[in-house]
Structures are given as structure tokens and as C-alpha cells.
Amino acid sequence: GAVVSQHPSWVICKSGTSVKIECRSLDFQATTMFWYRQFPKQSLMLMATSNEGSKATYEQGVEKDKFLINHASLTLSTLTVTSAHPEDSSFYICSARDGREYQETQYFGPGTRLLVL
Amino acid sequence: EDKVVQSPLSLVVHEGDTVTLNCSYEVTNFRSLLWYKQEKKAPTFLFMLTSSGIEKKSGRLSSILDKKELFSILNITATQTGDSAVYLCAPGGGSNYKLTFGKGTLLTVNP
Question: Which run of H or of E encompasses B65?
Fold first, then answer.
């Protein structure tokens, strides 16, 4: 149980284009999903928290107009990197919290490596 | 501001050794502390600790939490090369169940 998928696993795009990443909870309903970014040899940095049906809460320093998050259903959240630039190249990871559990356990997707040329 | 400090930052051992990884934290509205293992991809869940002094165990891994002193340890006995990974400590709390991740301990187990 508690499987989270993420698609695509790899994406290479040109500077200025937009990239959409999907995160799905496969066997549970995720009332809350989280988006992280991880640079090489660094820890996970939380970008935003999204609750189903409401606007995402962004961490300080994360541009909400650049990183658009949509959590339209209890099993799907999307992150769109708009007008991507080379400095946006990173490992993006989503996680989901099981809405039935009153606890902090987050289950992670396999991540998406983004390379912006 | 929430803080999580893991030590050591890296550790190299031989197969069969026992290791202890440390995590100290200062988190607002603390509720629980989670340990994750990260190999080449995203983290996989190991333990969630909510009560002080109660050891959680899974095979050769065990972990315990001290809420008074604000720290947790993760023990791995009889290490194997497959234990090589980054181990992440993440205390959590607050109304949105947010986790704050430490920088991790890079464990390398040599044959």
C-alpha cells in the first residue's frame, strides 16, 4: 500500500518552455500533497503544500507564478514549471499524506529529473 | 525557524559493523519524527516516532525518540552493502503536517 507515482521521470526541455509534472497516489486518497526540490548532494527543500480543492501554500522564496500547483482531486496533483530556465534544473519530488491517518507520514513518488537547456 | 541537525554527515564502515545516526531538532508544534532512506531516487519511509523512549524496530534497523532532549537516533546493526544510502531525519508538526528535513547522513558500507 501507500504507492505514489510521478510522471515523467526524466524531462529535458528548452529554456522558456513550460513543463508539467504529475503526482498520483495510487492506492489511497491524499488530502495533502507536497512538492520538494533537491539539488545534488543537498537535502529536500519543501516548495509548497497543496490540499485538495484549495490553493497551494508556498514556502518563502518560492515563486507561485513560476511553479503552478494544482490539486484538483484526492489522487492527483500537478506542478507546472513555467518559462523554465537552466537554474530550474533539479530533482523534483512529490509526496502524499494519507488523509485517513492523523499523522505526518508522507509517501514519496520516485521523482522527476528536470534538465533545462 | 525550524532546525534539524544530523550527525555525522557521512560515515564509512565495513560490512558487519553497527552504526548510530543522530538527529537533533527544534520544531514548532512538534508531533512526530520520521526517518527515511534515500538511495538514488526518492526517499523511502523507515520509521515514524511519536512517543519518547519507545523503540521502533524493523529487522536490523531500530530507532528511538527523546522528546525532552529533542533528539532521535537510528541504529543499524550488522550493516550490509545494501544499507549504503543517505538517511534523512524529518520532524513534523503544525496544521499542515509539514516535515522539515535534515541534510542527511551519507552511509557507505564497504564489503
Answer: strand B61-66
